[in-house]
Amino acid sequence: MTLASLDEHAPRRTLWRLPVRDTWLVRIALVIVVLLAIAAIAAPLVAPYDPNAVELTRRLQGPSLAHWLGTDHLGRDELTRLIYGTRVSLGSVALCIVLIMTLAIAVGGASGYLGGRVDQAVMRFCDIFLAFPTIVLALFLIGILGTGMGNVVIAIALSHFAWYARMVRGLVLSFRQRDFVLAARAAGAGRVRIFFEHLFPAIMAQMIVLATLDIGHMMLHVAGLSFLGLGVQTPTAEWGVMINDARQFVWSNPMLIVWPGLALLLSVMAFNILGDAVRDRLDPSLHGDHQH
Amino acid sequence: MAGFIIRRLLLLIPILLGVSILMFVIIRMAPGDPAVAYLKLSNIPPTPSAVAEARHTLGLDRPILSQYASWIGNAVKGDFGVSHVTRRPVIDDIMHFLPATLQLAGVALLFTLVVSVPLGIWSARYKDRWPDHLVRGFAFVGVSTPSFWLGFLLVLLFSLTLKWLPPMGKGGWQHMIMPVLAVSFMSLAINARLLRASMLETASARHVLYARLRGLSDRRVERSHILRNAMLPIVTATGMHVGELLGGTLVIESVFGWPGIGRYAVTAIYSRDFPVIQCFTLFLVTIFVLCNLVVDILYAWLDPRIRLNAEAAL
Amino acid sequence: MRGVLVGALLGIAATIAPASGVVAQTLNFSWPANVGPLNPHAYAPSQMFAQGMVYESLVKYQPDGTVAPWLAASWTTSEDGRTYTFKLRDDVTFSNGETFDAAAVVANLETVMANRKSHDWLELISQFHSVKALADFTVELQLKDPYYPLLQELALVRPVRFLAPSQLPASGNTEEGVKAPIGTGPWKLVETRLGEYDVFERNDSYWGQKPAYEKIVVKVIADSNTRAVALETGDIDLIYGDEGPITPDTFARLKAQGYQGEISPPLGTQAIALNTNKAPTNDLAVRQAINHAIDKDTLISTIYHGTQTRADTLFAPTAPYSDVGLKPYGFDAALAASLLDKAGWTLAPGADFRAKDGQPLQIDLAYIGTDAVMKSVAEVLQADLAKVGIEARLLGEEANAFYARQTDGNFGMIFGNTWGAPYDPHAFVSSMRVPAHADYQAQLGLPDKAKIDAEIGQALTSTDETKRQELYTDILTRLHDEAVYLPLTYSTAMLVARDNVGNLTFGATSFDYPFADLKPKD
Questions:
Q1: What does the DSSP 8-state code read for residue C143?
Q2: Cα–Cα distance for residue pair B75/B92, rounded to 1 Å
Q3: Across residues C512-516, what is the average pLDDT?
Q4: What is the dihedral of CA C441, C445, C447, C449, to 10 degrees?
Q5: How far, CA to CA in Å, does C363 sit from each of A17, C112, C171, C437, C439?
Q6: Is residue C249 less than 8 Å (CB to CB) from chain A?
Q7: CA angle, B38 as apex, B36 and B41 as ends, to 5°?
Q8: Dist. CA B15–CA B30, nearest whole Å
Q9: Interhelix angle for A200-227 vs A255-282, to 10°?
Q10: Which SUPFAM superfamilies match (chain A) (predicted)?
């Protein structure tokens, strides 16, 4: 089965490429990503308030010295909730990536190593997953498993892992033919050792490149599904949910909808820039279209 | 060409069968008994006897293979069962809500192509000058913007502040402007960026250099030599946009109150209405796969090499 | 290019600007869903407000609590209170021209009686013994027991209104559906577009006062926020309803912008049922603590913008038989905490929430996830309860799943409403005996549940006014002392209209929509 168009992922990865010479952009992106990480890890220390402290008497206030970004419909501090929101966004995406990598190495590795019928079967299995648009697969899985952040993570991982599995399989196949692997095997090295010494680092390098390029995309999916009310449960602060909560105050407090979206936009952008940079650094072979 | 198309169509059958089997297996593996879910939606207390009765009604007490066979058999005839919530045949509901979604996604796809191609050409023509920077900057922001959030920003601007456009619902063409913009923004950005890169690449290709040496004008070279070849990646990308646009439409419908299948599906998900979820998924996957098929065919038509290779591979 | 763009924009502006100068004969309204098949004897997905537009009852409920003649011009009651004889109006036709007569009443009531199980929430139907036509326009209704709320319940929107007999299915059983929704009411349904709108036209052969509007278009708008915007852009002219057609925030904002906005007198009670049959709310101390932990006044002045008033008891003291001198559970977080301490629910050092014998004080609070106001209230309750060490887990679900929880009792706390006039208190307490109701499920853990149910039955059929009051007093006191409910607010209906709608009024109950009284104006 060679549905050429199902290989769509390959072009996507190179689409938002920025010229790497714009290093100031990469630096800014790096700063943003580091700030996000700090915000996520040290939220209780950095955030000025308790994210779930409802204080009805000061609800829907505009920006002030006490509340830099104002308060939401329950009087909770908007900035605090934005900061706590990074935990969900980054945490869920990190979980997705770990899941994807595990699945991809298991499935793709088995396929590449065992070859033959198993390989055929596994690749057909991956084709099935690739036939789903991401959101549709996610909606289906959440529909069956029920709503909640855990299921959102599973859904996103399952809708992405097939690309990674294919890549792992490709790497394994090409490695099996390489001279040094053949030599190592001739010298009596076991499969496991060859795998961990030679193959694993290469697979990880490639996967990290792909994953960094996908982080932004996954963040958007997480937020989108949460926006539909399928993700986190209240009172957990999450950007997609905050956008959904703010929609009924679009007239009176439009900034409530602007802030979480802006946070999402900036984070996704920073990860996209960084993804490009990492790819250029680690994987010059993907430079196909980079001729200008 | 006809043989190519037929072979491709036949290849869809195993894919769709695989998708349906996968869905079936996941539903059976999932926690929670569909019979209990069914009883809850029917306002019947799930006593053991009621559950047993429901399992029988729903055919859950039969061997899984026979369940699958009868489900797929009915599905082929267009019978996807009855929604546990609305009590209407699922297929009726789906056919009712699907056209609005397809309309929105289709217009968005058209809009993506119509706008991104000139943008890409413009950007490539003025490489490293301000139009190029502008388009690339736009492409970069576009790729990172959450579509549902963009939808709200558009409502803020065009409905609430300027009062130019209706904020919600389905009606005249005015109702489509903002949803289409929000849905297609990302694909548009990707496409423009892709066409630019592809044009620049083709522009440095040998046959283009020869054409220039033959003294053809820049515009002429651009039109007859660069663009046609540069369109190939666009065609590929379009296949992927169909998925993105469909998915994006499902989310955006909830922003603009668009009476499409996305909101219907979300409601079904909330109430765990399995027949609806199954049918919805199968339909969208089919549409997605069919669109990719069309793209493949287009691609093969534009570039005979692909067709020949593919036929050789079969 | 630029010219074209400007032209296009002007075009948009022109098409959006509302037409002025002509008095619109069409009222644009909105509802979260299509009105449904409008089977007068069935429930969801038929929408009650629309059933009320198309079908009429024998008698009509008045704002003062009495009932007035309607399709029945007069009636008499037998000595023993078991036989009612109705003299029907002889000038009424269905909107398709059929005569409304005794045969029509019998055909309708018989199919309702045949499907008693579907209506077991309503005691009236169980009390029906038989119905027969004595003459062309005379009907006799036999009851099993003397049932005092009979007339009130005959005024209900469903299931005792009348479909044209020709529209009954072949079997005569409306459980199978109806051919077309033909009633005697001032409106007739002429078009339905799924997911988009329903259109009603004035019934020009209506026997009573004909409505001023010719046509009502009911647009499907699920989201309350979108509904408000639709009013502002002129897509709809009227927002009306008792179940939060728009949020109180939006109501306040629209009123500030100069739209006509009204709040009805209190209708029913918004009360949260506490499940006595499920840990940890099976502990009386926990239920009492919950009642003391909630700061209702702040909730009302902020989230509700004062559009509702505080409720301290399940039924407002103004409801019949309900002024029984119950002592409110006041807001007192310290008292709540000490009640919990005494009952053994203690706070370990450093912990946020209490526990007892290793069991955490954790309660599921179910609400409808798509209802923005209910969600806000749930979040406030969660925060208030957290302050006394109770962990409320919010379960925001789609409406159907939510109602399923009410039915099967799978909740710790769940939102609910009493039904308001003319149901409160008799029909509401009556339904407490039906397993498919949240109230039954919530009360299941009470040691005296059987006694309460028995007393409800006696109160409904007692012919002695003093005895009936005594029974109600006992029932309401038991429920209050056992803290089965957390009454929050007395709910109201709200109405917002554009300037082109005049003669704004509220219906006598929350189920009567006053479309026929509204008048267009410039």
A1: E
A2: 13
A3: 89
A4: 0
A5: 50, 40, 48, 20, 17
A6: yes
A7: 110
A8: 22
A9: 170
A10: MetI-like
Residue located via tokens 């299931």: C159
Nearest alpha-carbon partner for A33 in A163, A180, A168, A215 = A215
Contact at 8 Å (CB) between B123 and B131? yes
> The dihedral of CA C117, C122, C128, C134: what is its sign?
negative
List subunits contacting chain A, requiring 3 or more Cβ pairs under 8 Å. Answer: B, C
Strand partners, C359: C356
Q: What is the pLDDT of residues A171-181, one digit of tens each?
A: 888 877 777 67
Question: Taking the C-alpha atoms of C360, C365, C370 and C371 in order, what is their torsion angle to the nearest 10 degrees?
Answer: -140
Q: What is the mean pLDDT of residues C359-381?
A: 91
Peptide bond connecting A260 to the previous residue in cis, omega within 30 degrees of 0 = no
Is C257:C506 a contact under the CB 8 Å cutoff?
A: no
* C433, C452 contact by CB (below 8 A): no
pLDDT in tens, A194-233: 777 778 888 888 888 888 888 998 999 999 999 888 888 7
Instruction: Give the mean pLDDT of B273-284.
Output: 88
The pTM of the full predicted model, rounded to 2 decimals, is 0.80
List the beta bridge partners of residue C489: C270, C310
Report yes or no: B133 at the C interface, CB cutoff 8 Å: no
Which 3 state secondary structure label does DSSP give C497?
Answer: strand
Angle at B170 between CA B167 and CA B173, to 5 degrees: 85
**CA–CA gap between residue A89 and residue B236 (Å, rounded):** 31
CB–CB contact A6 B160 (8 Å): no
Question: Complex ipTM above 0.85?
Answer: no
Token pair for B142: 């576009």
Q: Does A134 touch chain C (CB under 8 A)?
A: no
What is the average pLDDT score of chain B? 81
A290 contacts: CB under 8 Å, gap ≥ 6? A14, A17
Residue C222 · residue B253 · CB < 8 Å = no
| Cα–Cα nearest to C429, from C303, C286, C315, C282 | C315
Using the beta-carbon criterion (under 8 Å), do B43 and C436 form an inter-chain contact? yes
Give the single-character DSSP code of C303: T
The pLDDT tens digits for B38-60 are 776 665 656 677 778 777 877 77
Read off the pLDDT of residues C150-204 as tens digits, 9 standing for 90 and up: 998 999 998 999 999 999 999 889 888 899 999 999 999 999 988 789 999 999 9
- Virtual torsion, Cα B4, B10, B14, B16, nearest 10 deg: 100
Whole-angstrom distance, CA of residue B301 vs CA of residue B81: 40
pLDDT higher than threshold 50 for residue A9: no
Residue partners of A125: CB distance under 8 A and separation at least 6: A107, B18
Look-up of token digits 């996908």:
A214
Residue of chain C whose alpha carbon sits nearest to that of B162: C13
Confirm if A276 and A18 have CB atoms less than 8 A apart. Answer: yes
* Chain C interface mutation, best of A59, A73, A230, highest count of C Cβ atoms under 10 Å: A73
Q: CB of A8 within 8 Å of any CB in chain B?
A: yes
Q: Report how far residue C90's alpha carbon sits from residue B200's, in angstroms, rounded to the nearest whole number.
A: 86
What Å distances lie between residue C411 and B221, C114, C408, C448, CA to CA?
71, 33, 9, 21
Q: Which of B154, B289, B124 is nearest to B223 (CA)?
A: B124
Q: For residues A96 and A83, what is the distance between their CA atoms, to the nearest angstrom?
A: 21
Q: What is the DSSP string of B60-106?
A: TTS-HHHHHHHHHHHHHTT---B-TTT-SBHHHHHHHHHHHHHHHHH
* Residue C302 sits at the chain A interface (C-beta within 8 Å): yes
SS3 C304: coil
